Amino acid sequence: REERPALVVGTGGYASGATLGYAFLHGIPVAIQEQNSYPGLTTRLASRFAREIYLGYGEAAAFLQPRRDAWIGETGNPIQPPPEEIPDRGAARRKWGFPERGGNVLLVFGGSQGSRAMNDTMRDWIRRGLPEEVYVIWGTGKAGYNDVRSLESRRIKIVQYLSPIADAYAASDIALTRAGALTSAELNAWGIPSVLIPLPTAAADHQTANARALAAAGAAVMLPQSDLSVDSLESEVGGLIGNPERLAALARRAREQGKPNAAKVIAERILALVAANTLPQTHSSSNGTNV
To answer: What single string gives the DSSP state of each residue in 186-203?
Structure first.
C-alpha cells in the first residue's frame, strides 16, 4: 500500500489468485503467464481483465475470455535456453562414460522428486534386458535412488538429481519423462523427442492435455501411466530407437515447437508494460505467435 505496483504478473495457481484479484479491484494492470495447454481456474478468471497473456501452448487460448484490447500470444514457457552453440554430442556422451558414437542415449526422469511408477518400470525393463546399444541416463529422485542404484553399469548411469540437467540433455537422443510444461519446453528447445507419461494426479489433469498437444504436433508420443509396463516401454521407446527415421521426425518437430527465448520475450513485454503502465492496442508481434 505504501508503494503502488506498476504491474502484477500472475503465473496461475490459487496462490496468485488473491494478488490478481487485489490488483483488479485497485486498478493495477495485470499480465498473466499460463504454462499449460489447459489453463487453471485462476488463469481463466484473470484472463478477463489481464492486459497481456503469455501462453506456453497456443491451445490454451480456446479456454480464455480475454478483454477485447488484450494482447495474447504463444510466447512459449520461460526456461534456461540451450547455449547458442549446442555442445558436441560425442563430448557430452563421454562425460557420462558412454561411447562417443553409436547407439542411442535414453534420458529418464520423473520430475525433481522422481516417479515411483516410472522407476519401478525402468527397473524391471533393465532386469529383463534393454535393447542392444541403448545407454541410459536415469534421474530417480532422492526417494527412489537407493532402490535401483545397484543397477548402474557402463551402459546405465543413475543419479538422484540431474544437475546441471544441460549435461544430460546434450548427451540424449530420446527422453522418457512426465509431461510438465517446463520439462516439455526444455526438451523441445533442445530438440529431444520424448515419450511422455503424464502425472495422472496433476491438477485438472493438465499434464495429459500437454502430452496430447505435443503428440498432435508430432513432437512426442503419449503413454498414459495406466498403460505403463515393461512391454509398453519396449514397444514405444524401443520402437522409436529401432526406427531412426521416425525418431528424427519427432526430433525435428520438437525443435520446431521449441521457443528457447521465451523468457527474454516475456521479460521484454513485461518491462514495456511497466514503463508505459498501459497496454498497446492489440497487434501482431514477431516476439510471440498471436492466437
So the answer is: HHHHHT--EEE---TTSG
